[in-house]
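Worked example 3. Consider a protein that binds flavin-adenine dinucleotide.
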Amino acid sequence: MKTDFLVIGSGIAGLTYAIKTAKKYPEKKIIVITKANVEETNTKYAQGGIAGVWNDSDSFEKHIDDTIIAGDHLSNPEIVDIVVREGVERIKEIIAYGADFDKDENGNYALGREGGHSEFRILHHKDVTGNEIERALLSQAEKHQNIELINHCFVVDLITQHHLGFLVTKSTTDITCLGIYALNLHTNQIEKIISGITILATGGCGQAYRATTNPLIATGDGVAMVYRAKGKIENMEFIQFHPTALYEPGVSPSFLITEAVRGEGAVLRNHAGIAFMEKYDERKDLAPRDIVARAIDSEMKKAGTEFVYLDCRHLDKEKFLHHFPNIYAKCMDIGIDLFKNLIPVAPAAHYSCGGVKTDSWAQSSILNLYACGECASTGLHGANRLASNSLLEALVFAHRAFLHTVQLIDNDQLNQHPLYDSSLVPDWNASGTTDPKEMILITQSMKELKQVMSDYVGIVRTDVRLLRAMHRLDLLFSETEDLYKSSTVSPQLCELRNLITIGYLITKGAQFRKESRGLHFNTDHPGKSTVLQNIIL
Ligand code: FAD
Ligand code: SIN
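Given these inputs, the predicted complex is written out as structure tokens:
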């Protein structure tokens, strides 16, 4: 198969790019590939909303400051400026596509507030904002006949000149993406898709941890593929744990209790029923997430418990039911009437702040490969993401990738290296030919991986825990590579392999960072370095 534009991922980032490109070039084909049903994305599960400066009491400067403070001063100020200022126009575009955000009785947008925000600036659709955005984008995408949505097609690897027999190392300056190999789950065949431009929009990697808010698709495939292709990966140690996932033993992924509930006044309490956040930060329950998650972790460890409580009992019932009907229904479903009972909550892996290193036009270090959305590290989030900034970032960088690719195409500057003739790309060379004899080996290794990452590379880290994690990951890596070489490719095996790479990148980044900053907290290095540094692997 050959296409002008290949988009991997059907969440907010991938669909936004595809829609814009399809509109601009009605004669060109845009393929959007997704490994599951098209709507099964992290995007679909976003609750709180999308941050933007909407009224006069707010300002770009305030949103910029909040982002930089939450990011513990590691964000790239130029990128923060771009996202905050351009973001409002991008939100207006999805409103024009039909995304419906809640309004107040005066017809103004009803803005929510979350941790780290100094103003009410979160647009939302009840407590199911992501579902509404995904719906609007999919219905818009369906209007463009030149967008071909291919579901249940698992991208296994990027094709670079390595597949043509050229040596590619980390220091190769012109690594070029020529397309992908993908396992078509309808036919069980590996297909080769050659593309002019490839957009990676593969989302997050929360599945590397035992407790996560991320759906099953969030296995860091894009980041792992770029790492294997020798592209640059940045700041993977900054994994954000959401403070308030519903504590339900044995249930995975964890159901999120949006931070917007704390924005409306809900209070965290420990086992003794005491509100504890004021001990940790003057912003109390609305401190940035890294601080709240660490405070909860500390309270749980002191009491020897696996959860704390969120208290909503004092909140206005009518207002709550209007804004958070889904959360109310979920709690009722498991026997918690949140106007009478406390909600048990615990932190869960939620968001990857690092990822594929990109520039201000979403270009990765690999030619003709762009990355946007959660799989990218744009420089916006620094050491910790400000709540509801990720949907915004995805819109802004999908748009910037679009602008950049338009410029390349219109000026006939698409970087096709003369040596790398994509017509010579070989078919997939299946190294292994037998089905894995024991699926249990894959499921067991997956369990081990999550355990290692949760126990040793979680909210609080130490040097010895990181070293131990690395030893365990080494073993898992070599066992899984052996399995990969001898078996036919399956999504389960690929996801395991990718998550082991993600585990390695998180742990390696954490080992290199000899300080505690934002989401990375190492008790052996409690202070902050005076040198601001991004860890690039
Ligand atoms: P996704 O929406 O995750 O899409 C990834 C796509 O890539 C999927 O289609 C997937 O199938 C595809 N894919 C992945 N690997 C492969 C492969 N190997 N082959 C083929 N396809 C592949 N952010 C906010 O700003 N505000 C919020 O309120 C908010 N709430 C959240 C609540 C929850 C519960 C979660 C989990 C996240 C939340 N976030 C929120 C974060 C935000 O939703 C995500 O960062 C964002 O939606 C990511 O969008 P994306 O387009 O990058 O990726
Ligand atoms: C939430 O609704 O609390 C999640 C918001 C986010 O992750 O940005």
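Take a moment to read the result before moving on. The domain at 2-45+128-237+353-424 is CATH 3.50.50.60 (FAD/NAD(P)-binding domain). The first helix runs from residue 12 to 24.
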